[in-house]
């Protein structure tokens, strides 16, 4: 194994120097704490990295899949051995509560565990032929070079959903992480290199948005990128999709969500309140799977809203190294985005959840806040009652600690409200009636549905992905992602010793 892998290391094994403007990745719970200083690459960075990757990929594809499986399993073991320090880095760099950061790191380990086995499977098929003395086969073939562009809200787990299967399938990767999660990304890449992934096979590139697009366009034009994986907003994902479409490529897009949670009249309300609290305000609402719209049956509306309001007012918020429901927003850009969402709160909304709206500060304090709110990007939780389907907060992903409530009378109406924003990532229903659960599953347009559980927190071996504005139907995780990183090749092998013609030499009885 050692020699097979070391032969992959070669002249391609060179880092791409960003060489451009300096970017400071800051701790969002203490903005004076600079976690990483990186030089962002210009438009050439991604293009050059893709050329390096293309050269390295040819040899990597020759490494037997079970051996590649052992390499990704080695990454899993290294991540496990460094679990606490990686989680601490994630908490420091993006403000995710430490318990959640540990869970996120575990998700990499789970992903690596799963794909160790796939290295020994990666099955093709034997297929019967129409003709005698002829055998047909199918093989999975690596796509080549995957460009992976990831968001920073899940700075280590979500990238691993691309990196691990892409590498396992015999591809090289150019990874462009979110710059505000630069240090977390670097740590994962470092562990992957240490686990035996050659540097030319996994290339880390830092670049701003426009340079990324320019570099990606050049690489697609040159044919050095053969698959694009993108996790981020629906707006940027649409642009990625258009660019890929012009080059006849179908990207793997994991975009935003406006994930509904329906509370049926027979729901266990304590469970539903707990589920809503975690789904909507956990991670400060900054998961693509975060709860967006609460859709509550008229009969239980008042009771549910008052219990949820109480739970929000007593929830622990603050320093993410402690035990809190949520910490700061990811980065200044996200704080600015959330402030503009707050501006769309309308007169017909009943504002609940806190005594104040906006940044937590000395002039707008929060009782029981853990730590010093003045150093970080901390925001009051907002629960908006009386949402209407044409409200901005009802239709758009908000990516912050805000959830709106609307009311329904019939299940059909609840499903219609759930589907109305046009996203389709995750959805949940709280009910004790199996028929309601099944009907909800059938009617809702989400790729992932939960019954009596959170909209967020999908497990690492189920298909992950959405429909509509949430993506192009591609799925990550489990065996389903193999179709993103391999293409089917068929083999038609004739041992009859004569030219047999399909459709023409077939005896039909
Ligand atoms: C994301 O926010 O991009 O299902 C992914 C979840 C996590 C992944 C979220 N396992 O909430």
From TrEMBL:
SUPFAM superfamilies assigned: ALDH-like
Keywords of the record: NAD, Oxidoreductase
Signal peptide (from-to): none
Record carries keyword Transferase: no
Catalytic residues of the enzyme: 254
Region (Disordered) location: 1-27
Domain Aldehyde dehydrogenase as annotated: residue spans: 23-490
EC number(s) reported in the record: 1.2.1.3
Family designation: Belongs to the aldehyde dehydrogenase family.
Subunit and partners: Homotetramer.
The protein's name: aldehyde dehydrogenase (NAD(+))
Organism whose genome encodes this protein: Saccharopolyspora taberi
Phylogenetic lineage: Bacteria, Bacillati, Actinomycetota, Actinomycetes, Pseudonocardiales
């Amino acid at each position: 194994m050692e020699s097979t892998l070391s032969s992959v290391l070669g002249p391609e094994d060179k880092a791409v120097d960003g060489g451009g403007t300096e970017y400071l990745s800051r701790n969002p719970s203490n903005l004076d704490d600079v976690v990483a200083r990186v030089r962002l690459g210009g438009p050439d960075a991604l293009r050059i990295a893709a050329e390096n990757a293309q050269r390295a990929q040819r040899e990597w594809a020759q490494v037997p899949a079970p051996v590649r499986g052992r390499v990704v399993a080695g990454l899993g073991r290294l991540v496990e051995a460094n679990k606490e320090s990686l989680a601490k880095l994630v908490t420091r760099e993006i403000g995710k509560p430490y318990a959640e950061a540990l869970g996120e790191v575990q998700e990499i380990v789970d992903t690596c565990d799963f794909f160790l086995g796939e290295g020994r499977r990666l099955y093709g098929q034997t297929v019967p032929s129409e003709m005698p003395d002829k055998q047909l086969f199918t093989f999975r073939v690596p796509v080549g070079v995957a460009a992976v562009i990831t968001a920073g809200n899940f700075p280590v787990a979500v990238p691993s959903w691309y990196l691990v299967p892409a590498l396992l399938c015999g591809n090289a990767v150019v990874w462009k992480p979110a710059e505000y999660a630069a240090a977390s990304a670097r740590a994962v890449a470092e562990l992957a290199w240490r686990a035996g992934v050659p540097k030319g096979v996994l290339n880390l590139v830092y670049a701003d948005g426009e340079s990324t697009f320019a570099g990606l366009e050049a690489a697609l034009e040159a044919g050095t990128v053969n698959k694009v994986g993108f996790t981020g907003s629906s707006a940027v994902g649409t642009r990625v999709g258009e660019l890929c479409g012009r080059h006849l490529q179908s990207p793997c897009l994991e975009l935003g969500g406006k994930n509904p949670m329906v509370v049926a009249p027979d729901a266990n309300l304590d469970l539903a309140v707990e589920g809503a609290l975690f789904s909507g305000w956990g991670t400060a609402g900054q998961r693509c799977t975060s709860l967006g719209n609460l859709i509550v049956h008229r009969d239980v509306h008042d009771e549910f809203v008052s219990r949820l309001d109480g739970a929000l007012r007593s929830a622990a918020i603050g320093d993410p190294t402690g035990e809190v429901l949520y910490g700061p927003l990811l980065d200044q850009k996200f704080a600015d985005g959330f402030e503009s969402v707050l501006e769309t709160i309308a007169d017909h909304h009943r504002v609940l959840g806190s005594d104040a709206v906006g940044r937590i500060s000395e002039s707008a304090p929060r009782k029981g806040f853990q730590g010093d709110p003045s150093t970080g990007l901390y925001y009051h939780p907002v629960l908006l009652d009386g949402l209407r389907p044409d409200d901005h907060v009802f239709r758009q992903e908000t990516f912050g600690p805000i959830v709106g409530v609307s009311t329904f009378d019939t299940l059909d109406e609840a499903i219609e409200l759930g589907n109305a924003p046009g996203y389709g990532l995750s959805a949940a229903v709280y009910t004790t009636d199996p028929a309601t659960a099944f009907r909800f599953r059938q009617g809702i347009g989400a790729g992932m549905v939960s019954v009596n559980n959170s909209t967020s927190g999908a497990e690492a071996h189920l298909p992950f992905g959405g429909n509509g504005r949430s993506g192009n139907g591609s799925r990550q995780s489990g065996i389903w992602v193999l179709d993103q990183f391999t293409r089917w090749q068929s083999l038609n092998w004739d041992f009859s010793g004569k030219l047999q013609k399909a459709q023409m030499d077939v005896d039909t009885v």
